[in-house]
Design brief:
homodimer, alpha+beta, Deoxyribonuclease I, Chain A, 6-stranded mixed β-sheet, 41% helix, Sph/SMPD2-like (chains A, B), metal ion binding (chains A, B), metal-binding (chains A, B), sphingomyelin phosphodiesterase (chains A, B)
C-alpha cells in the first residue's frame, strides 16, 4: 500500500466440506467453488476443509489466472484442509497446530485426525496478515465435552495473533470458529486481540438472516442439529483489525443463501462469507474505549479460565482412571505369569487351568494394559496443556489488573 | 529501557538434566543450581530439563527474592522442563511445540515424551523477547535418523522467531540445540533469523576450550559418546540479535568447567553458559553485509531442504510398509473369521482347527493390526509435516532469489 492511501479488499471465506469419501457431491461442489471464485475475482480467498490435496491442485490450476499466489497448509492425518488464494504475493507462511484438539479415540468426531490448526500468510500488498483456521467442532451444545479444548484453541489463537501481528498493518481472520457469536470463546478471542466482527460492523449486509452460516435451508446440513435454532447459527466469521496507522471499515458483508447461481446445490454445508473491507491510511486506528473494555475483558478471561479449570479436573479424573486401569491390567498379567510359572514348576497339576481361557485372559489383559497406558499418556499431556493455559490466563488477568 | 540508553544484561543458560528417577543426584544438583543463581544474581535465567514441577517450585521459592518473575512451560508427557527466571517483569508468555519430535515407539530415546518446545517470554525491561528451548537429541552422529526432525524444528523455530520478534527491541535465545556450531541446522537458524552466536562474538571468553558444553571431564557425561571429540562438543548456545534501533554486543562469555564452587559435583551433565550483553540504543543494528549473506543463505536453505527431502522419502517408505502390514493383518483376520464361520456352519468338522492356536493367531493379528494402523497414522502426519516444511523452504528460496 505504499503510495496508495486507500484499498478496497474483497475477501471470500468458506468451510468447503470437501472430505474425501465422506462429503456428498464433493467434486461437483469443488468445481462450482472454483468457477465462482474465478468469475468473482476476490482479492483474498480463505478456505477450510479442502482435505484432499488433489482438490487443492485442481483449484490452483483453475485459479492460476486471477489468484496467482496460493498456499496449502498440511497437518494431521486427514488434514485441516486450510488454504489461501490471493491476488497479491504471499511473502511468508506459518502453521500453528493447537496443542489440544479432541481425543484420538473419538473416531466418530474426527477432529483429532484433522490436526486442526491456523495457517497464517503474510504479504498481500503490504504487511497484511491473513489467517485461515478452524476450531474444534461442537457436537452437543447442552453437554459440550470439548468446550475446554475449544477455549484452549481460542486462547492459543489469540496469543498467536497478538505475538505475530505486531509488525502488520492489518490483520484479517476468516474461518469456521465453531462458536456462536455470544459464546465465551468468541468473546475471549475478540477481547484479547481487539479483532472486530465484520458482521457487526458492516455498513451493508445481504444474506441469511442474522448472518447465519449453518442454516436449515441448506440441503447438506443436519436438520436435527439445527432444531433449537430455526433460523440457523452463525459459526463462520470474518474478523479484522488495523494495527498501525491504518483504519479498516467493513463496507459490505454477504453470505450465500443456498444453491449457487445456475445450479441446484450449494457450495458446502456451510454458507460462504464475503466481506468488502475499506482500508485507509490515516491517524490512529479506531479502538474501543479502553477503560470499560478492560473490565469486560477481565470478566471474559475469568469465565474462560473457569471453564478451562473444569476441563482440567475432568482430564485429571480421566488420567487417574486410565492409570488405575493400567495398573489393574498389569497386576492381572503378573498374577497370570505367577500361575503359569507355578504350573510349570509342577504345582497345581491336578487342576490345570483351561489353556484357551488362560490365553484369552492374558491377551485381554495385555490389550487393556496397552490401551490404558496410551490413554494415561494422552490425558497426562492434556492435563499439562490445560494447566499451562490456566496459568497463562492467570498471568493475563494479573497483567490486566496491574496495568489496565 | 525508556530513558536509560544502555543496559548490561547478564544471562545464565543451563540444561539442568533434572529428570525424576533418571538423573543422578538430581535434588542435590537442583539445590546447588538454586544457591548459585541466588548468589550470582543474573538478570535472566533460561533453564531446560527441569522436568519435575516440584523442582521448579523449590527453585521459585528459593529465588523469589532476586528473581521475582518466573514462568514454567508445561508440555508433553514428561515435559520439556523449560523455565525462565527473571529480575524484570515477564509481561506475556507463549509456548510453541514443534510439529515433529521423534517417534513415540523409540522409548529408549525419550524425546517424543518430552514434547520438545520453545518457550517465549516477553517483557523484561522493554520489548525483550527471551526464548528457552531444546531441540531433538542426536543419538548417532554417523547415521543420524533424527536429522530431518531436528531440521524441521530448527526451521519452525526460525519461522517462529521471525514472526514473533518484529515488535521486539532485542531477542535473546538460550538453549540446548543439540547441534554442533557448523551443522546445517545451526546455520539455517542463524541465517534465517540473523541471530548472532555469543561465543563467536564475545570480547572476552573464559571456560571450557572452544566453548564446549558437553565435555569428557564432567563426571556425568557418557564418555563413549565423546570419544571422537576429545575436547568435547558445543551444543548449548546463547544467541541474540537487536531488532529496532538498538545494538547488542557480547562483552563476556563464560562456561562452567566441571564441579561447582565448594562441591565435588557439577550442576548437570551439560556445562552452563553465561553471557554478559551490552545493549545500547543508537542508529541501525549492525548487520552482516546482505549480498553475500543472502547467497550463503540460499545454500544453507537448499542443503536443509535436501535433508528434509531425504527424511520425507524415509517417512513415506515407513508409511507404506506400516500400511501394508495393517492390510496383511486385516486379511489374516478376515480369513480366520471366514474359517470360524465355516466351522460354525458345519464345514470341515472332520479336521477342526486347534482352538488355542486359532485364538493366539487371531490376537496376534489384532495386535499387529492395531500397531500397524497406529504407525501408519503417525507416519502419515510425519509425511505431511515434512512435506509442508519442504514447501515452506521452497517458498523461502524463491523469495530469497526474487527479492534478495
Amino acid at each position: 500500500m505504499e503510495g496508495d492511501p486507500t484499498l478496497r479488499l474483497r475477501i471470500f471465506d468458506l468451510n468447503c466440506w470437501a472430505i474425501r469419501y465422506l462429503s456428498k457431491r464433493r467434486q461437483e461442489r469443488v468445481r462450482l467453488i472454483g468457477d465462482t471464485l474465478r468469475r468473482e475475482g476476490f482479492d483474498l480467498v480463505l478456505l477450510q476443509e479442502v482435505c484432499s490435496e488433489q482438490d487443492y491442485s485442481d483449484l490452483k490450476v483453475k485459479l492460476a489466472g486471477c489468484y496467482p499466489f496460493s498456499h496449502y497448509f498440511r497437518s494431521g492425518v486427514i488434514g485441516s484442509g486450510l488454504c489461501v488464494f490471493s491476488r497479491f504475493p504471499i511473502l511468508d507462511t506459518l502453521l500453528y497446530q493447537y496443542s489440544l484438539n479432541g481425543y484420538p479415540y473419538m473416531l466418530q468426531h474426527g477432529d483429532w485426525f484433522c490436526g486442526k490448526s491456523v495457517g497464517i500468510s503474510v504479504g498481500v500488498t503490504a504487511p497484511l496478515l491473513s489467517l485461515s483456521l478452524q476450531l474444534h467442532a461442537e457436537y452437543c451444545r447442552e453437554k459440550d465435552a470439548y468446550l475446554p479444548h475449544r477455549l484452549v484453541q481460542a486462547w492459543e489463537l489469540a496469543q498467536f495473533i497478538r505475538h505475530t501481528s505486531k509488525a502488520a498493518d492489518v490483520v484479517v481472520l476468516g474461518g469456521d470458529l465453531n462458536m456462536h457469536p455470544e459464546d465465551v470463546g468468541i468473546r475471549l478471542l475478540r477481547g484479547w486481540t481487539g479483532l472486530r466482527d465484520a458482521f457487526a460492523e458492516a455498513t451493508r449486509f445481504e444474506g441469511c438472516k442474522n448472518g447465519c452460516t449453518l442454516v436449515p435451508d441448506n440441503c447438506f446440513t443436519d436438520k436435527s442439529e439445527l432444531l433449537p435454532f430455526p433460523l440457523g447459527i452463525r459459526i463462520d466469521y470474518i474478523l479484522y483489525k488495523a494495527i498501525s496507522s491504518f483504519t479498516v471499515k467493513c463496507e459490505e458483508l454477504k453470505t450465500t443463501t443456498g444453491p449457487a447461481l445456475g445450479t441446484d446445490i450449494p457450495f458446502s454445508d456451510h454458507e460462504a462469507v464475503m466481506a468488502t473491507l475499506h482500508i485507509q491510511r490515516q491517524g490512529q486506528p479506531v479502538g474501543a474505549t479502553h477503560g470499560t473494555a478492560d473490565l469486560a475483558l477481565v470478566d471474559v478471561v475469568t469465565e474462560a479460565r473457569t471453564e478451562v479449570g473444569v476441563g482440567l479436573r475432568a482430564a485429571q479424573r480421566q488420567r487417574y482412571s486410565s492409570g488405575r486401569m493400567a495398573v489393574l491390567a498389569l497386576l492381572l498379567l503378573l498374577l497370570q505369569a505367577a500361575a503359569a510359572l507355578g504350573t510349570l514348576a509342577g504345582l497345581g497339576t491336578e487342576q490345570p487351568f483351561p489353556k484357551l481361557s488362560f490365553c484369552l485372559l492374558a491377551f485381554l489383559a495385555l490389550g487393556v494394559l496397552a490401551l490404558a497406558t496410551g490413554l494415561h499418556l494422552f490425558h497426562t499431556m492434556e492435563v499439562k496443556m490445560l494447566h499451562g493455559t490456566e496459568d497463562q490466563m492467570w498471568m493475563a488477568l494479573r497483567a490486566l489488573q496491574e496495568h489496565p
